[in-house]
Amino acid sequence: MPDDLLSQGVLSQKEIDDLISSLSAGEDAMPAKPKAAPEELDKIVKVYDFKRALRFSKDQIRSLTRIYENYARLLATLFSAHLRTYAHISVVSSGQVPYGEYIRSIDGMTFLNVIEIPPLKGRKIMEVQPDIAYAMLDRILGGRGTGMNKISHLTDIEMKLLTNLFTKSLGPLQEAWSSITEIEPKLSEIEVNPQFLQAVSPNESVVVISMHAVIGDTSGTINIVIPHVVLEPVIFKLTAQYWMESGTKERKPEAVEALKNNIKDAHVEVSAELGKTDLTIRDFLSLVTGDVFQLQKRIDEPLTVNVAGVPKFLGQPGMRHNHLAVQILNMIEEGDEEDEW
């Protein structure tokens, strides 16, 4: 073959035969592109599981965690008072998973408290492990608080006692949520078989907040499950920016007026001081009925009127409708008391 044809890129017979063979074998005739290094692929491709769609940001989950840390403290105080034993509850973890995955991860039998929280839509779940539930029940019935991982044979009385206790836990929940929104939680049902409970669709994202609970000598886990549909109306409040902005917002005039009215209705202790004197311990212990000692105040000097233990007014003693009374003369300005000395 002439050299001038080779210089123009004409294929040799061997190269033509190889190309025809690759085409007949179904292979790509175009030269393969160089493969990217594994570290380059990590920068370009990101794995995304549509079954585990992340609908909550880390900031929002942290805000929910703070809410339920407060709820855990309130709940521990409530259980300590009603069960008359040591109770400690603390948040240990929080995250988001599909609802179906959460249901598959829990035991076949457990206590699932289904709670409605109007005006928010949907329902949240409070899962109480059997050991903790039975320890509570044992304390209610006068026992030591021994846990027992068996709930297949609960009597109507036992279920009623637990329902009453779990209903009391809604008060602390309402208080913990008051910084975000006003809710009116109510316990709609208690389910013991998770397969019979379909709160949301299996692929719906839920926030799971796990709390470690200690009741007497028994320990276990309490899980809080909140679907996305419940938090959707207040999701914008679960950010650090909202917390910072709400802390700097000016109070509305009607809120300030309501605060003033509440302060005006507050009760304070008012006392009139006739005078003071100094006594030794010996003289004080020897005092008997009829003894007289001199006060460090003249009879014509005004009395000091204390408000909540703080000198605020000067007054003079007298009678009003056959009752001892004090007439206010003037207000003690700041520094007057020191000037008198």
Automatic annotation (TrEMBL):
Domain (Flagellar motor switch protein FliN-like C-terminal) ranges: 262-332
InterPro entries, A to Z: CheC-like_sf (IPR028976), Flag_FliM (IPR001689), FliN-like_C (IPR001543), SpoA-like_sf (IPR036429)
Membrane topology annotation: Peripheral membrane protein
CDD domains, sorted: FliM (cd17908)
Major localisation: other
Subcellular location: Bacterial flagellum basal body; Cell membrane
PANTHER family: FLAGELLAR MOTOR SWITCH PROTEIN FLIM (PTHR30034), YOP PROTEINS TRANSLOCATION PROTEIN Q (PTHR30034:SF6)
UniProt family annotation: Belongs to the FliM family.
Record's protein name: Flagellar motor switch protein FliM
Record organism: Siminovitchia sediminis
